[in-house]
Structure formats: structure tokens, C-alpha cells
Amino acid sequence: MAQALRYLVVFAACCWALPVIGAPAEAASKTSQNDYDLYKILVDSIDQVERNYVTEVNRRDLIESAIRGVLSKLDPYSSYIGPNELERFHNSVASEFGGIGIQISMDEGQLTVISPIYGSPAYREGVLAGDRILEIDGKSTEGLSIDESIKRLKGDEGTVVALTVMHSGKDAKETISLTREIIHVDTVLGGRHGSDGAWEYVFDPQRHIGYVRIVAFSRDTPTELQRVLTQLQTEKLQGLILDLRFNPGGLLSAAIEVSNLFVSEGRIVSTKGRNSSERTWNARKEGVFQGFPMVVLVNRYSASASEIVAACLQDHHRAIVIGERTWGKGSVQNVIDLEDGKSALKLTTASYRRPNGKNIHRFPGAKKDDEWGVAPNQGFKIELSNREMLDLIQDRREGDILHAPSPENVTAKKPKPDGGQPAFVDRQLQAAVKYLNTELAKAP
What we know:
Number of strands: 21
CATH class of the largest domain: Alpha Beta
Strand content: 15-25%
Distance between the termini: 91 Å
Oligomer: single chain
Number of helices: 12
CATH architecture of the largest domain: Alpha-Beta Complex
CATH topology of the largest domain: 2-enoyl-CoA Hydratase, Chain A, domain 1
Structural class: alpha+beta
Mean pLDDT: 84
CATH superfamily of the largest domain: 2-enoyl-CoA Hydratase, Chain A, domain 1
Number of domains: 3
Shape: globular
């Protein structure tokens, strides 16, 4: 009797962690005997550990570990948020926290930097896109989930965190100490600074080609971009390069609004899940910037919201996409309250679909031939080697300071004044300029 009572208590403790979102009531009430037997294995295992393990263990710790074990079989963006983590999670959603300014993901089981955020401590101290984070404050990241990693990286403003990283294309590890701060991000940048320190967005004054780099999609990005485009129009804009390379994404709403600045009708994006109805977002005609050719630059570190914009403009033939196949982060996470809001699940419930209906997300186990990400237009796939990628990152870092050389210098291979190695040549940017010049030459 005591054993049966213990089983029922542990079973009840487990069941709240196994919700079925959107399942019909009659389906939920018809749990098969096989499912019951599987639940019983879990409950019996927890019961045996709790009663017989060599030292006393906390039942809640066991239950939470079981939940995390279940979620570890899913994608790296699904996770359990315990009571002690929930306040920190809500703060992170509100962007009010001390951090170092990086976007991270799991790539082949390793914690990887998608991109540092421009101007952040990570950016200033040399953390690079593609870096593998091996340790945080001397503790290995092996086996850590995304949320556990973020928890270690975040902290109070002014505190220090040490990252041990392996840069892409290098064999030696490097430890970088970073001081956390409140991250404020300017997301719409130009190609160079003017004499007054402001960004300049005119790339080629003779042909009136504009260059805009979006480094993340925040709440203010659409408004910032609209202001820049209005300014460029007063300077007789004839062609535009929209650079989304290394852009890790951001808000879905910002991606939709940015897409709508260039597309006046039709579908922008949709979401579709196994247990949720399809939802679509369509363009509006007001405030659209049209009448000039466009190029969108992407690379292997363009993710999430940047993929939505690139896919939308490509499918509507508003722009051609040049560069590399994108990251493949096109999933929707819902936060599901547990224990009356004391804890929660962050669960991937749907994936983004581009206007043509094709999938964006790279699911676990996806192969190169599978459908995911955004591929460059035919004839415009330009892959950079690891060496070129590092040179591009360094070239950008130098270009983001006030005394950097102007961006025109990257389109022609010129020797350095000291007779050393030639200046870096951005082949993807070169291709964008060549395409726009060809299109503009067709104009009457």
C-alpha cells in the first residue's frame, strides 16, 4: 500500500512536466497502456533513486533533471526554466540585464558564437563569429544547454566573465576577460564614418549606390532603416546593398516591418507547427521604397530574422541574394507556464516558412541537400574561406572606428603603403557592386 501511494505521489509530480499543447481532450483522455508503462519506468526510476541512492537526494532536483533530459532530445532552443531562473529569463526578454553582447547557438554539439553584437564588450575585446566557447569562467561548456550557457554569461553590470575560445581556422585556445555592461545596440550602420563621426550610407556617389548594414533586428530597427532610406532618397538613390552578413536575427516583428519597407504586397512570412494553426503576415502598400535594384548580402552566420528578410526579398524578386547559404534558424519558441507560473517550458512549437512556402529552419540531423536556410541566387554563390572570413571580420572591425579607410578601398586590391600584403578584397561586396552597375547600365 505504501509503495502504491509513493508511486501515485511521484507520478503526480512528474505529470505536470509532460503537457500536450493543443491536443484534443479525447486524445488526452485515451493514454495507451504503452504510454502508461513508459511513464511508469520514469516514475519507478525516480522512486528507486530517492529511496535507495547512497546519499539523500532532493525529489525536485530529480524531477527537474528528468525534464531537462526530455528536452535535451529536442532542438537546442527548447529548455526548462526553473523557479530560480524565471526572473532572470523575464529580464532577458525585456533586454534589461548585464551582458557581454554575443549571440550563441549549438553547432555540432559545441557552443558557438553566431555573432558578437556591434559595440558590445565581446565585440571590443575580439570575440568573433564562429568562435567555439570551450569554457566560461574556467568551467567547461560541454553538455551545457543554450539557456544554461546564457545564465553563466549574464550577470550584474560591472562584473567580469572569462571566456576560453577557439577561433575559427586556428588551433590555439585564447582566454578573453570581459566586463559585463548594459547592452545598447545601434542596429543600422553604414559603410564608414564621416568626418563628424556619423555613419555614411552612400557607397558610390557617382552611381548613387547606397550601402546599409543591419547588425541585429531590434524594436527600433525598422524606424532607423526608414530614416536612412529617406535620407538616401534625397541623395537620388539608384541602387542599394543591404548587408545582413553576421546578423544573428532578433525580433520577428522587426523582420516583418523591414521586409515591408521594400515589398508592397503578398506574403512576407508564415509560421507552421505540428500542433498549431498556420499564421501568415502580408505586406502593406504604405511607405514602401521601390524603383531601384537591390542586393542582399548574407553568409553562413546570417540567422533568424535576417533569413526572413532575405527570403522575402528573394521570393518577391525585389532583390537578389549574394554570398553563402545562411545559418538555418527559423523556429518559433513559445513560453509555457508550469506550476501556475512558478516555472516554464521554452518549447519550439513551429517553424518559419518563406513566402514560397519552403522551410527555413535547419532541424537536428539536417543534411546539406535538405531544404533549410536561404541560398544565394543562381550564379551568385560566393563562399569565403576561413582565412577570408577572419580577414573580413578584421576589416569590419577596422572600418567601425573613426580613422578607418573608406569602403571604396575594399573593391580594388591595392598594396599597403609599407609594401606588405595587399588590402583585403571583399569578393561578396565586389559581386554586389558589379551586379548593381550592370543593372544601372540597362536604364535608359
